[in-house]
Amino acid sequence: MQLLTVSQLNMYLRDLLDADDLLRDVWVEGEISSFSRHFSGHCYFTLKEGEAQIGAVMWKSVAARLAALPANGEAVLAHGRVAFYEVRGQVQLYVDTLRPAGIGLLQAQFERLKERLAAEGLFDPSRKRPLPLLPHRIGIVTSPTGAALQDVLNILRRRYPLAEIVFAPCRVQGAGAAETIINALYALYETNVDVIIVARGGGGAEDLWTFNDEQVARAVFASPVPVVSGVGHETDTTLIDFVADVRAPTPSAAAELVSPDIVALTDDIAHMRNRLEAAMTQRLANARETIDRLKLRLSLRSPESRIRRDRQHIDELLRRATSTLERRLILARTRLDGARGRLEALSPLATLARGYAIVQSPTGTLITEAAQVAPDDRIEIIVRRGRFHAHVE
């Protein structure tokens, strides 16, 4: 048998507890008792369950994160590590998280499951898919008797009555609800829906807990089409909110997210039609201008146009040639008249007209001197109008 001092024993117990993996990360459910807050800000209390109890310490930094300090008699769920306080020889729970019991336990389970699924990539933002702009078929998973269904249907019919609704009923709370939700989802996966709404109205955390079920989350993850979660109110958060492609704060909001407003669509279509018509009108006008310009260019280069131009050129040349010829003809006529006048002035006929006569021999030789004739020669005398013969004496 080994003899130990108190310090040695306490150190042994401390090391023994510190080496235990379970005690380093443990949740403990119990009732607050003997709660006190030291002037330093640290809190000391006892967790009780029937006759069992354990001392607990919550440091100032942990207490500062709480919305309100717990009260004696309040059932809580405390997370932390169990260690041995050597000074007093006391086992204590060093609390780093403190939540109300019940919901707190569920929340702790929720957080662990959430962390695990996040590590598997179920919440990866890169896998989030955009919602279809104009869905033809919209699947709805919710209770057939809940107000959420009517809210969703009213909005879908008002905003986008063109879409076909495919309803997959399920239970949204209570025992077996998760299985009905999973079956409803997989039933929709067999149809040709474009988007799915998983909806449930508001309620307490326990009422919404079905949507924190791991298998429900995995069923949503397996969806071949985008899923919108519309569970509870805006302040409620369930596991499928993280898995779904889009999280809506309410069922009504989910319906609005998946359904385009037909009034706005009509206005948009009218606006786009006007823009299209204006654009087409402008394009037609531009095309007509282009065609007219090309036709003009083509006509200018066409053989017919060239023939017309050549004919016009020929006409112009003819006109110029005619004009030139006429001027030359007039000039020639003027010159001719002048020459004629001069010739007529020098003409023997003109001389004859003035009373002179031409004397010539019978052979036609002009007799210009008296020595050219002898007595009895016959001569011919030409006067202005006629001729006659004579004898030289």
UniProtKB/TrEMBL annotation:
InterPro entries: Exonuc_VII_L (IPR003753), Exonuc_VII_lsu_C (IPR020579), OB-fold_nuc-bd_dom (IPR025824)
Keyword Coiled coil: yes
GO biological process: DNA catabolic process
Residue span, Exonuclease VII large subunit C-terminal domain: 122-337
Catalytic reaction list: Exonucleolytic cleavage in either 5'- to 3'- or 3'- to 5'-direction to yield nucleoside 5'-phosphates
Record-level Gene Ontology MF annotations: exodeoxyribonuclease VII activity; nucleic acid binding
GO cellular component: cytoplasm; exodeoxyribonuclease VII complex
Coiled-coil features, chain-numbered ranges: 262-297
Subcellular location: Cytoplasm
Residue span(s) of domain OB-fold nucleic acid binding: 4-98
Keywords: Coiled coil, Cytoplasm, Exonuclease, Hydrolase, Nuclease
This enzyme's EC code(s): 3.1.11.6
Enzyme class: hydrolase
Subunit structure of this chain's protein: Heterooligomer composed of large and small subunits.
Similarity remark: Belongs to the XseA family.
Entries under HAMAP family matching the protein: Exonuc_7_L (MF_00378)
PANTHER family named among the record's database cross-references: EXODEOXYRIBONUCLEASE 7 LARGE SUBUNIT
Name under which the protein is recorded: Exodeoxyribonuclease 7 large subunit
Source organism of the structure: Roseiflexus castenholzii (strain DSM 13941 / HLO8)
